[in-house]
């Protein structure tokens, strides 16, 4: 069923009786060409591109809970491609371009809003660093614009410009960045994959990987064994648990990131804004709530909840940047579990087990990567070689010293 | 989280900074034949368990001692706190 304006009018005139569930609820078959573990954004995107671009229809996505219930439904919805390093920027710019055409590709309203993102800087050194990053982005075909304090003031007069300790000196803007409705992204990918024949199997937990003679034959699940020629694992947050079933230790720790929403306000924030002197990023949802977050809690955890010191730190950052939000009340806060990798960058690669492929280590930047991650993982699964924009995301980069460390803090996952 | 410091009693976790898995105490022998491989695993690979986890915490805003905290990563419940010094010596280090 395609969505269109005509369809909406027709349904409105006939009592909305024509809408149907947009994906099936199939029982697993005994064998698939490709099984993707994890029905989150990345797993569903992988299934979409596998079926639509690479022509693989005999594909299943197995999900422990319900689709859209994990990190794809927990993030702060920001989309951007403002990275600096060679291994990263082409990939994220590829993702940005996929975002720009996503709704047409999926025939689904993902509420993609290119309202722009602004990274503020507060010192001369930070201006130099942002200038360099902006130039790197432009060299890779992305857009970047360096604003001085007056230009920022014109667009965002409510910011705390003349703070004694951290005055705002300007910002690096990416106008094509913005936000997308995170749930709709999961639903749109699921609907499209399903319509191309992919089986989306919910409430089906993977309990083991059947590996014989170094080859992966399929997955043991709570709904029985499902055979597969190839198995792709896209369960970021729980990568350590699933890959442990294959006897692998990963360059990853699991950490919790908290996110927050205020009560609904009238429109006050025209774009996404990040604070350069503390860790705080914020946008305003279409419902009016301020959606914001900050640092991870910083210790290993699989609990989807955090602790109060980080709540305090995030709120302090927000109030020092934009004092006007000091009187808005917090509506909800929650946590999601992140794969924090050893260099802050992801992994899309084969594993030592034949037929087993891995996608993870997204730290807390996985949402913006969703379309390209799915595209590149589908490419790897279909063609057995990395996509041209994801060649650096290898397991062995840690062994060979080819880390992609945007922040330059080394192998300390809680600092990335 | 409250960490029950062996010398100072219960202290708020915000006084500490977190390093990671307590296996970091077991630094490999740099002169061994397989030192490169051992240091790769030591530096980059982690067990990352869901459940009981032994980890290093540094009492930065306190007495600056290193602790080995045994904590459940699914509930945040802390079952044991030791001085890292004692753990390391028990494992035969610093001799």
Task: Characterise this structure.
- The complex is a heterodimer of chains A (416) and B (95).
- By secondary structure, chain A is of the alpha/beta class.
- In chain A, 28% of the residues lie in helices and 26% in strands.
- In chain A, helix 2 runs parallel beside helix 7.
- The radius of gyration of chain A is 21 Å and the shape is globular.
- Chain A starts with a helix and ends in a 16-residue tail after the last helix.
- The model of chain A has no long low-confidence stretch (mean pLDDT 96).
- Chain B has one domain: Folate-binding fold.
- The radius of gyration of chain B is 14 Å and the shape is globular.
- At the A-B interface, strand 12 and strand 15 of A face strand 3 and helix 1 of B.
Topology at a glance:
The complex is a heterodimer of chains A (416) and B (95).
Chain A (H helix, E strand, L loop, with lengths): L4 H9 L17 E7 L3 H12 L6 E4 L15 E2 L9 H12 L1 H5 L10 E5 L2 H16 L5 E4 H7 L14 E5 L3 E2 L2 H14 L3 E3 L4 E7 L2 E7 L2 E10 L5 H6 L7 E13 L7 E3 L6 E4 L4 E12 L7 H14 L8 E12 L5 E4 L5 E5 L5 H18 L13 H4 L16
Parallel strand pairs in A: 1-2, 1-11, 2-8, 4-13, 11-18
Antiparallel strand pairs in A: 3-7, 4-6, 5-6, 9-10, 10-11, 12-15, 12-16, 13-14, 14-15, 17-18
Chain B lengths: L1 E4 L3 E4 L4 E5 L13 H10 L7 E7 L7 E7 L5 E6 H7 L5
Antiparallel strand pairs in B: 1-2, 3-4, 4-5, 5-6
């Amino acid at each position: 069923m395609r969505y269109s304006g005509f369809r909406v009018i027709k349904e409105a005139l006939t009592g909305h009786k024509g809408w149907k569930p947009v994906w099936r609820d199939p029982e697993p078959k005994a064998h698939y060409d490709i099984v993707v573990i994890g029905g989150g954004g990345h797993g569903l995107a992988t299934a979409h591109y596998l079926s639509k671009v690479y022509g693989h229809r005999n594909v299943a996505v197995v999900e422990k809970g319900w689709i859209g219930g994990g990190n794809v439904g927990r993030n702060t919805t920001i989309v951007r491609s403002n990275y600096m390093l060679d291994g990263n920027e082409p990939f994220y710019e590829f993702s940005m371009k996929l975002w720009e055409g996503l709704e047409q590709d999926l025939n689904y309203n993902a509420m993609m809003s290119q309202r722009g993102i602004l990274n503020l800087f507060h010192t001369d050194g930070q201006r130099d660093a942002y200038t360099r990053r902006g130039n790197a982005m432009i060299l890779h075909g992305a857009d970047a614009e360096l604003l001085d304090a007056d230009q920022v003031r014109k667009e965002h007069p409510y910011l705390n410009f003349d703070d004694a300790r951290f005055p705002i000196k300007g910002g690096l803007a990416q106008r094509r960045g913005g936000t997308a409705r995170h749930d709709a992204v999961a639903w749109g990918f699921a609907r499209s994959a399903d319509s191309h024949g992919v089986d989306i199997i919910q409430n089906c937990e993977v309990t083991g990987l059947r590996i014989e003679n170094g080859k992966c034959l399929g997955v043991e699940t709570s709904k029985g064994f499902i055979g597969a020629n190839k198995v792709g694992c896209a369960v970021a947050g729980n990568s350590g648990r699933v890959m442990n079933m294959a006897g692998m230790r990963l360059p990853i720790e699991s950490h919790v990131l908290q996110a927050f929403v205020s009560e609904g306000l009238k429109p006050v924030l025209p774009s996404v804004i990040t604070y350069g002197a503390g860790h705080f990023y914020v946008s305003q949802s279409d419902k009016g709530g301020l959606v914001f977050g900050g640092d991870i809690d910083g210790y290993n955890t699989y609990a989807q909840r955090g602790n109060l010191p980080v709540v305090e730190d995030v709120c302090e950052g927000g109030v020092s940047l934009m004092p006007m939000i000091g009187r808005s009340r917090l509506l909800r806060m929650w946590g999601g579990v992140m794969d924090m990798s050893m260099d802050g960058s992801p992994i899309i690669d084969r594993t030592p087990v034949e037929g087993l492929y891995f996608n993870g280590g997204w730290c807390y930047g996985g949402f913006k990567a969703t379309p390209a991650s799915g595209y590149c993982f589908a490419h790897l699964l279909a063609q057995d070689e990395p996509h041209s924009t994801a060649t650096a995301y290898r397991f062995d980069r840690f062994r060979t010293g080819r880390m992609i460390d945007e922040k330059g803090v080394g192998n300390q996952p809680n600092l990335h | 989280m409250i960490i029950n410091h062996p010398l100072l009693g219960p202290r708020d976790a915000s006084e500490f900074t977190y390093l990671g898995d307590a296996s970091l105490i077991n630094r490999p022998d740099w002169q061994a034949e397989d030192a490169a491989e051992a240091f790769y695993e030591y530096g980059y690979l982690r067990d990352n368990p869901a459940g009981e986890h032994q980890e290093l915490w540094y009492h930065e805003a306190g007495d600056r001692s290193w602790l080995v905290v045994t904590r459940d990563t699914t509930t945040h419940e802390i079952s044991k706190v030791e001085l890292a010094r004692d753990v390391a010596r028990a494992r035969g280090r610093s001799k």
